[in-house]
Automatic annotation (TrEMBL):
Lineage: Bacteria, Pseudomonadati, Pseudomonadota, Alphaproteobacteria, Sphingomonadales
Pathway(s) annotated for this protein in UniProt: Cell wall biogenesis; peptidoglycan biosynthesis
InterPro entries: Beta-lactam/transpept-like (IPR012338), Glyco_trans_51 (IPR001264), Glycosyltr_51/Transpeptidase (IPR050396), Lysozyme-like_dom_sf (IPR023346), PBP_transglycosylase (IPR036950), PCN-bd_Tpept (IPR001460)
Protein name, as recorded: PBP1A family penicillin-binding protein
Superkingdom of origin: Bacteria
Length: 705
């Protein structure tokens, strides 16, 4: 017969169980008391409601166009604070329905939500639902990071419970809807409404509220600026949640069809970003403010920017890229396009890319020539030429013989540019390019006159703008002033127009040549029905196409080509780039008065042709012998040297003036071009001006120049 268990064991087990329960309850009570104390202590350290309303979470920068409109908002944007009673009810219902349906009933932490999240975790093997309440999300946004650790989660629970003790449900929801991040740099429903719909947050419709409420789950993924279709699809889910929660009817849901919600067109976030990416880094050297929200007032003209974007998109060849920069008289950047699409490529080809400019570089060749004494009507010879083993050829494949300097520039004759480079020196041309703002390395090979050195579009545009400014340096800038949101001015741009690069008559001569290039030469496609001066540029194998020009005070540079520098079929400066220039400029200068170019600037005395008075009387033509020397008329007075005042004596100064050269003993003026003879190096020997033979003076023989 089996042994029986002593009767005393059952009471003992019962006593152990009861004791364990008592201990457990005691520990639970102690834990609860500790939690209550911790919650109240935490609540006592929380900022007040007014402090939480006013505390920013980072510096906001609003970038404004020249007309004051906001181009983009960078950094956190908070919009206007909306009190609870001004927040649309549909917005409150949408947020509670999708994020925390039991918001009004839990103490800040939802046990049911936590249990559901744990079950899903067990079923799927990973955390899918966080179970966070609106209060927890607010606590995390205000005081914690987004790191996923149990320690951070415990602190989040404690803060949520404390906030529920200190603030009412309405205050918590008000803070949440004005503080939470909705994507696109927008914090709070007012900033989001203005960003995505173009109106304040207190005017939200049901569909718009559903879009905004749907963003909280994944702002980067569902933001309309990132994926408009995903944002609208998510809004449909929010509407379904609201219908299931009973806050809207089926009819309301159908009427609010998210697909019909009109999102704010965000064209500014495309091409405008090329400009803001270029301009905003300059703030680091302009101001020291790094905390207070800022308004950055820029030079960008929205109408011109839109026209520039359209022109580049319309005319840039397929598989190629295009860039455009437009500068006003003082260097203000009115439009900047760095590529066909900022979303697909943020590389700014207007300010960063370096490419060969081709014949657009001839600006510096001809500026050096004009400064050295050439004139637009001087005769030059288009003929085969070889310089240090390099033999340039013309695009036409033929040679035209004797032509004017104007004709050579108008039709971009390469052989003449090469001869000018040989005459004035490639070092002089490189110095001219440096003087006008070219910041990239320039080679000194003979071929440099045809634009074989890489340059930036913005630098080239700056150089052409200086010619339009009659030889005064132009420095591109994009920021006119920086203010705080309260209106305190931190920076204001000051234009410096004191640096003169070339004499006005040199700039006038260059403008004259460029006007001919557009009216009758390679730049004819750039005509817009008003005076335009410009120059085309095409590199070998049609890898790059340029057009640079100005009209009515606006200078615009256009470049097109492939990023990999492969040839583009049919691309030339006078085709797509010139057409894009024309399309843009027709809009850009439409409201500006038509301006005629000042191409008749007064030349210095050493550039003037000798007149009749230098030889004989007023109105009488000079008489020269077969060698080109002035002779005395048979029945006239002896020829007098106006400088010396003695008959029949022609000193060196008189000869120089007769040939249009600077007198040898004239005082040197550093502001004037250097003294040099007329450009005979590009003429045929038979066509050169005959040497003037000085009449013999026994006491002081002089070798003719």
């Amino acid at each position: 017969m089996p042994a029986q268990r002593p009767r005393s064991q059952k009471p003992r087990a019962r006593r152990v169980f009861v004791r364990s329960v008592q201990i457990g309850l005691g520990l639970a009570l102690a834990g609860f008391i500790a939690l209550v104390v911790a919650v109240y202590l935490q609540a006592s350290t929380l900022p007040s409601f007014s402090e939480l309303k006013s505390s920013p979470n980072g510096q906001m920068i609003r970038v404004r166009a020249a007309d004051g409109t906001v181009l983009v908002s960078l950094g956190p944007s908070y919009g206007e604070w909306l009190p609870y009673d001004q927040i649309p009810q549909v917005m409150k219902d949408a947020m509670v329905s999708v994020e925390d349906r039991r918001f009004r009933y839990h103490p800040g932490v939802d046990p049911i939500g936590i249990a559901r999240s744990a079950m899903v975790r067990v079923q799927r093997g990973r955390w899918v639902q966080g179970g966070s309440t609106i209060t927890q999300q607010l606590a995390r946004n205000l005081f914690l990071s987004n790191t996923r650790t149990f320690g951070r989660k415990a602190r989040e629970w404690l803060l949520a419970l404390a906030m529920e003790r200190k603030f009412s449900k309405d205050q918590i929801l008000e803070l949440y809807l004005n503080k939470v991040y909705f994507g696109g740099g927008s914090f709070g429903i007012d900033a989001a409404a203005r960003r995505f719909f173009g109106h304040p947050g207190n005017q939200l419709s049901l569909g718009e509220a559903a879009v905004i409420a749907g963003l909280v789950k994944a702002p980067s993924r569902y933001s309309p600026t990132a994926d408009a279709e995903a944002a609208l699809a998510r809004a449909e889910i929010v509407l379904s949640e609201m219908r299931e929660a009973g806050v809207i009817s089926a009819a309301d849901m159908r009427a609010a069809d998210a697909a019909n919600v009109r999102l704010n067109e965000d064209a500014n976030q495309n091409s405008v970003r090329y400009f803001t990416d270029w301009a905003l880094p300059q703030l680091e050297v302009l101001i020291d403010e790094t905390v207070e929200p800022l308004d950055v007032w820029t030079t960008l003209d929205p109408t011109m920017q839109k026209a520039a974007d359209a022109a580049i998109r319309a005319h840039t060849p397929e598989a190629a890229q295009g860039a455009l920069v437009a500068l006003d008289r003082d260097g203000a950047v009115r439009a900047m396009i760095g590529g066909k699409d900022y979303v697909t490529s943020i590389y700014n080809r207007a300010a960063q890319a370096t490419r060969q400019p081709g014949s657009a570089f001839k600006l510096f060749v001809y500026l050096a020539a004009l400064e050295a004494g050439y004139k637009p009507e001087d005769q030059v010879v288009d003929e085969p030429v070889t310089i240090d083993g390099w033999s340039p050829r013309n695009n036409s494949g033929r040679f035209s013989g004797s032509i004017s300097l104007r004709t050579a520039f108008t039709y971009s004759i390469n052989t003449v540019a090469a001869k000018i480079g040989q005459d004035v020196g490639t070092g002089t041309i490189a110095d001219m390019a440096r003087r006008f703002g070219i910041s990239t390395p320039i080679n000194l090979e003979p071929s440099m006159v045809l634009g074989t050195s890489d340059v930036r579009l913005i630098d080239m545009t700056r150089a052409y703008a200086a010619v339009a400014a009659k030889g005064v340096a132009v420095a591109p800038y994009g920021i006119t002033k920086v203010t705080t949101t309260g209106g305190r001015v931190l920076y204001r741009h000051q234009t410096d127009s004191s640096r003169v690069l070339v004499a006005p008559w040199v700039a006038a001569g260059m403008t004259d040549l460029m006007q001919s290039a557009v009216s009758a030469g390679t730049g004819r496609a750039a005509q817009i029905g008003r005076p335009v001066a410009g120059k085309t540029g095409t590199t070998s194998s049609n890898k790059d196409g340029w057009f640079m020009g100005f009209s009515s005070g606006l200078t615009t540079g256009v470049w097109m080509g492939r990023d990999d520098a492969r040839p583009v079929r049919g691309l030339q400066g006078g085709t797509a780039p010139a057409r894009a220039f024309a399309d843009f400029m027709r809009t850009a200068v439409a409201r500006r008065p038509v301006e005629q170019f000042e191409t008749e600037a007064k030349l210095p005395e050493w550039q003037l042709e000798p007149d009749a008075e230098a030889y004989l009387g007023e109105g009488d033509p000079p008489l020269v012998d077969e060698d080109g020397n002035p002779v005395q008329p048979e029945d006239g007075p002896a020829i007098e040297d106006p400088a010396a005042g003695s008959p029949e004596r022609l000193d060196e100064n008189f000869i120089d003036r007769a040939l249009g050269r600077a007198p040898r003993d004239a005082p040197v003026d550093p502001a004037q071009p250097r003294d040099r003879p007329r450009p005979e190096a590009v003429l045929r020997p038979a066509e050169r001006a005959p040497a003037v033979q000085r009449r013999p003076v026994p006491a002081e023989p002089v070798t003719p120049r």
